[in-house]
Each structure stands twice: as structure tokens, then as C-alpha cells.
Amino acid sequence: MDIDIVLQNQTGRLWIIAAFLLAAVFLTGLGRHRKKRYARSEYRRETGNKRKKVEQDAGKNGEYETSIALEKIRGRRCFVFNAYIPRADGRGSVEIDIIMIHERGIVVIENKNYSGEISGRADQAYWQQRLAGKRIGFYSPVYQNISHVRHVRSFLKNHMDGMSSPPIFSAVIFNDRIQKLKIRRKWRSEAVICVSKKAPKKIWKKLKRQEPVFSEAEMEELYRLLKSRAEVFRWVKRRHRKKVIKYKKMLD
């Protein structure tokens, strides 16, 4: 009887060791897959950010995860991340998370890396985040992106001689970590509002209604122009951050 107990204990230990080994192999494989996916991503090529830096920064990680989803959109396209576009009134600049230049138009994307439940209405200036039993109000990203689209349109008009006004679409994308996204549309909003995993289908639904408007050369020209606004001097970024902090304090 004692021998049976000993054998059972040894068998139990072996199963535990095997489970640990399998878990270690799985996690190692998962880590390698993530490393390869990041190395091949357009986000890494465009930003040059190190993978560890992205993983430790919630905002950057959210933009990366969204860009991975957007790479599934068919057709010729390229991305510009964190572009500082001059305001139409000349007072400073606005930071745009992601700009997708597609052969059928330009998509200006406001990316939100929130958690919890998000609710609101497309015609309201403020939405709500419900997290840990608390409700937190925040400025509507739809309204925020309306101004971004306006500034992008003004910037391109001033710098793209000979090119007609291109179609520009607005998209507000929440990362998949949110538990629930409930935005009512009593007011007809042209903006795409969705989570990352649904973004390719939702955005393509908008783009496919539009015939291709950019040649390959025009896309390259647009890319160079917008990319130049992602490589601005540090003082431009600092000034923008100070304005954002000041604005948030006014809302509190």
C-alpha cells in the first residue's frame, strides 16, 4: 500500500513537471511569434520603435495592435504614425495617431487604448468610460477627429499643388481590451467607430464605395509629405504635449 502511494506521488510530480515544461515551450513559442510579427510589421518599419518600448507604453502598443489589424485591408496602402499636422488657423499643431494613405482615399484614425465599457452618442461632445464601478467622462473622439480631418484637409490643400481635394475618412478605433463599446447613432455620423478586430471590414466597407483616386506616384508624394510631419523637432512635440496637458486640466 505504501508503495502504491509513493508511485502515485511520483506520477503526480511527473505530470506537474510535464505541465510546466509544456507551458514553457508554449510561452517560448508565443514569444518568438510575437517577436517575428513585430519585426515584420509596418509599424516597426515606420516608427523604428523597439519592441520592448512599445510593449511598455500603452499608447504605442495600442497603435501597434491597431496597425496589425489594418494591414489586412486590401489594396495599395501605407501608414504614417504620430504625425504633427499644423492647425488650419496656424496656432500650433494636432497629433494624429495613424494616417492610412490608401489608393481610394485617406483615413485619419484616432486610436483609443481604453479598458472597461465605453458608451455615448455620436452627436454628444462627451462620452463615458465605466471602469471598476466608476464612470469617467471624456471628450468625444468623433468630435476630436472631425477637427483632425479638417486640419489634414487644409494642410494638403496648402501643399499639394495640382492635386484635387482627396476623399478623407474619419475612423475612431478602440483596442480590443475594452469589454463593451456602445455608441448610439441617432445623429448620422460618417465616422467609423469600432474595435481593432472589426476595423479592416468596417473601413474597407467605406473605401470600396470609392473608385481609386491616387496613382502610385501620388501616394508616394502624399506619404513623403505626411511623413515629414512625423519627423518634427522635439520642441514641436513638447509644445503640443503642454497644450494637451493644459486642456485636460481645464476639463477637470
TrEMBL record:
UniProt entry keywords in alphabetical sequence: Membrane, Transmembrane, Transmembrane helix
Segments traversing the membrane: 12-31
Highest classification ranks of the organism: Bacteria, Bacillati, Bacillota, Clostridia, Lachnospirales
Alphabetical list of PROSITE patterns matching this protein: NERD (PS50965)
Domain NERD: residue ranges: 58-175
Domain of life the protein comes from: Bacteria
Name this protein carries in UniProt: NERD domain-containing protein
Pfam families, alphabetized: NERD (PF08378)
InterPro entries assigned: NERD (IPR011528)
